[in-house]
């Protein structure tokens, strides 16, 4: 197990546990750093806190007293804890570094890291890059939002292996020296404004992916988005654009038949299994990262001819009496749901709803032309009901959860219909994760008769 070497801080507070906090605390302790852990959940109900306590780590649970900052020179916080948290706010007032565990992962393995972010497509792109490296027999490990905690994976990653890391804005905002050797910036759309408050702050958070890159690093980016082009203009790394709209002599692009890396034909579009315009953008970004990592066209082709998608992202579940069920629970914003709706020409029953972040839903209207009914749940159900009415969708209903939604949709459907779970909202009002939401939907579909 690798340790942090020349780590300049001696007394570290880990604020908030869950998987990332536990992993960070264990790494720091293993590296000889004095660690204190603070978590809201009471000790008796907190197995992670008890595990860390057994290691001799100072554990304070049940509340967040300001005294947890006494003697501390560095804070590692759970990504979900907002910067308005009193402990975080006070730490910043004292000018203490406040980071997330990906900063520790970089300090262990930064020279061999591919970091991928964007508002949409992160999981698909990260998986594609990982599979492409594997297909070319390059040692690689998967980490971040998509897999295991990054700083935990980094401890067992050798100098010859590459970490492929999916990164959220919540993680990136808490970085100090972090810089992946290859950064991939997919896109930027309005999201997570309940956390970031402004689009400007959200964009700045995403830009931390490449803020510390240097001239020998690479940045693969979406040249079709003006906001992305403006953000990457300040990067010191070598910029590698991808575009669906224009030929990119220094990057990745397509014509009507083929996908190219610079002037090199990589694969015929007809040979790519993964469908959808948005997925073609993800594929181009993945090809850029793979080629920069030395993956051959043969390895890329092998993956793209067989890869059909990731779990909970436009995942075909089952055909029941001529109805095709799709699980797109990972669609936690409107853009993802727009992309899902665009993929179908058949009559569609849309299952949607979830956490209300204050967003209007009007932009979904033009994408509802094939939607014959809507089954709604969660905090945003009333907003979706109004959206249905405004767009002339006469069949709609509000249910308690996605299990009921699947059952109701089946009852009102006909052979040839698509029944699509694509919530356009985060899951946290009813479910711990979008995976839990998607699993409930799939379980319900498999019990239909």
UniProtKB/TrEMBL annotation:
<dbReference type="GO" id="GO:0071555">
    <property type="term" value="P:cell wall organization"/>
</dbReference>
<keyword id="KW-0131">Cell cycle</keyword>
<dbReference type="InterPro" id="IPR036615">
    <property type="entry name" value="Mur_ligase_C_dom_sf"/>
</dbReference>
<dbReference type="GO" id="GO:0051301">
    <property type="term" value="P:cell division"/>
</dbReference>
<keyword id="KW-0133">Cell shape</keyword>
<dbReference type="GO" id="GO:0009252">
    <property type="term" value="P:peptidoglycan biosynthetic process"/>
</dbReference>
<comment type="similarity">
    <text>Belongs to the MurCDEF family.</text>
</comment>
<keyword id="KW-0963">Cytoplasm</keyword>
<dbReference type="Pfam" id="PF21799">
    <property type="entry name" value="MurD-like_N"/>
</dbReference>
<keyword id="KW-0067">ATP-binding</keyword>
<dbReference type="InterPro" id="IPR013221">
    <property type="entry name" value="Mur_ligase_cen"/>
</dbReference>
<dbReference type="GO" id="GO:0008360">
    <property type="term" value="P:regulation of cell shape"/>
</dbReference>
<feature type="domain" description="Mur ligase C-terminal">
    <location>
        <begin position="312"/>
        <end position="425"/>
    </location>
</feature>
<comment type="pathway">
    <text>Cell wall biogenesis; peptidoglycan biosynthesis.</text>
</comment>
<keyword id="KW-0547">Nucleotide-binding</keyword>
<protein>
    <recommendedName>
        <fullName>UDP-N-acetylmuramoylalanine--D-glutamate ligase</fullName>
        <ecNumber>6.3.2.9</ecNumber>
    </recommendedName>
</protein>
<dbReference type="InterPro" id="IPR005762">
    <property type="entry name" value="MurD"/>
</dbReference>
<dbReference type="InterPro" id="IPR004101">
    <property type="entry name" value="Mur_ligase_C"/>
</dbReference>
<dbReference type="Pfam" id="PF08245">
    <property type="entry name" value="Mur_ligase_M"/>
</dbReference>
<feature type="binding site">
    <location>
        <begin position="118"/>
        <end position="124"/>
    </location>
    <ligand>
        <name>ATP</name>
    </ligand>
</feature>
<dbReference type="InterPro" id="IPR036565">
    <property type="entry name" value="Mur-like_cat_sf"/>
</dbReference>
<keyword id="KW-0573">Peptidoglycan synthesis</keyword>
<keyword id="KW-0132">Cell division</keyword>
<keyword id="KW-0436">Ligase</keyword>
<feature type="domain" description="Mur ligase central">
    <location>
        <begin position="116"/>
        <end position="290"/>
    </location>
</feature>
<dbReference type="GO" id="GO:0005524">
    <property type="term" value="F:ATP binding"/>
</dbReference>
<keyword id="KW-0961">Cell wall biogenesis/degradation</keyword>
<dbReference type="GO" id="GO:0005737">
    <property type="term" value="C:cytoplasm"/>
</dbReference>
<dbReference type="GO" id="GO:0008764">
    <property type="term" value="F:UDP-N-acetylmuramoylalanine-D-glutamate ligase activity"/>
</dbReference>
<comment type="function">
    <text>Cell wall formation. Catalyzes the addition of glutamate to the nucleotide precursor UDP-N-acetylmuramoyl-L-alanine (UMA).</text>
</comment>
<dbReference type="Pfam" id="PF02875">
    <property type="entry name" value="Mur_ligase_C"/>
</dbReference>
